[in-house]
Amino acid sequence: MYAIITDGSISGYINYPKPITIGDVQYPAKIFSIWTASELAAIGIIEVTFDNSKKKDEKWYNNTNQTYTYDASAGTVTAAYGDATAKAHADSLWTQADSDNGDLPDDKEVGDLKSRGLKYNLIQTLKQQAAGILQSTDWYIVRKADAGTAVPSSITTHRAAVRTKAAEMETAITNAADTPALETLYTYTEQEDGSVTRPLGELPTLES
């Protein structure tokens, strides 16, 4: 991506190499591949440098739009993000202030659910994952109910372990103090033994 500099400020952008007219001169697209950065800068074209140092994982944060800044002394154009805002980790409710401001919908009352937070969504996903794992062995339970065939102890142990671990993981999510704490639970890191794990852990899988 390139910025077009006119009279000391950014006047436009070029997202991909293409023919361009500057003043009375038309330049072919190939200048972007054969000209040096200095040659392009001489006619007011500067490649944009992207600064993602403040960009955060959008699973947990809302990033700002990028701001493009031209530094005439350095001859650079930088696209940078502002400070990201953490997504709400807990559910929010309609408040009296919402009502006083006229923002409370007609079908809602103060104290009703306004929006779901990350915790709720993460727990729902966890429940679905646990249910999916248990589903693969549900047929043992159905067979026992229909035919009286005993469920193997390994299956019973596995299903109990899934439920126990799911409950532990749900508690960890519920107890997370804020969004950064939730992010930490889900962040994988390499351990001394070379394994890669996350604080939240994993649901058990059935060994074949």
Set down the secondary structure blueprint.
Blueprint: E1 2-6, E2 9-14, E3 20-22, E4 25-27, H1 31-34, H2 37-42, E5 45-51, E6 61-62, E7 67-71, E8 76-80, E9 85-86, E10 92-93, H3 96-100, E11 113-115, H4 118-135, H5 138-147, H6 153-175, H7 179-186, E12 189-190, E13 196-197
Helix pairs in contact: 4-6
- SSE arrangement, N to C: EEEEHHEEEEEEHEHHHHEE
Characterize the biggest β-sheet.
5 strands, mixed
Spatial strand sequence of the major β-sheet: 2-1-5-8-7
Radius of gyration: 28 Å
Number of strands: 13
Count of folded domains = 2
Helix content: 25-40%
Shape: elongated
Report mean pLDDT, rounded to a whole number: 95
User: Termini, distance in Å?
Assistant: 51 Å
- Protein structure class: alpha+beta
Number of helices: 7
- Detail the poorly predicted runs: none
User: Approximately how much beta-strand content do the residues carry?
Assistant: 15-25%
Describe the structure.
This protein is α+β, with helices and mostly antiparallel strands and 208 residues long. It folds into two domains: 84 residues, no CATH class; 81 residues. Helices cover 36% and strands 23% of the residues. The chain is built from seven helices and 13 strands. The strands form five sheets. It has a five-stranded mixed β-sheet with strand order 2-1-5-8-7. Strands 3-4 form a two-stranded antiparallel sheet. Strands 6-9 form a two-stranded antiparallel sheet. The radius of gyration is 28 Å and the shape is elongated.
